[in-house]
Amino acid sequence: MKIHLQKEQEAVKMMRHTYLEPAVLNVVFALRIKAASKAKAFESAMCQLSERNLSLDRIRLTDEQGKNIWFAVERIEAIRWTAVVSTGFSHQFQVHGQIRLAIVPERSAAIPLPLPPSSEYRLPGSKLSDMPVWVIPTVGEPAFAHVLGQSLERRLPCSTFSLTSAV
Hints:
167 residues; 2 helices; 6 strands
């Protein structure tokens, strides 16, 4: 009985720490680019948003109740460009891409820790459009991206897993 209670307490403690571990935010987005051709639009998007010129140090996400929670961006895991689509307007294209950010909740007095595991955090919605518009800070002018899809993958720390030795 005592061993069972001890294991249960360890599991609860481990779960509490898990919520503060890094997560990966995956965002599929579209940038509207004015260019002479699809190739130039693709090139312009790559120049506008690259790992070198992004200045993402924190990001605001919201939970189901609309409460804002700030996350620190630990690193940009990847930026991938997937397609260029003509908008039908003169020399305007939508360049589609995906970005993966390793994030962790910021520790502040305003946020009770640990964060609840059942909450889903998302980029806040836009009042002007059905899709969220993500203003991405860069070293130059900010990029305005329409969010087409997003997901948050929680990462469990390696210490939460233990391997038993085989006999």
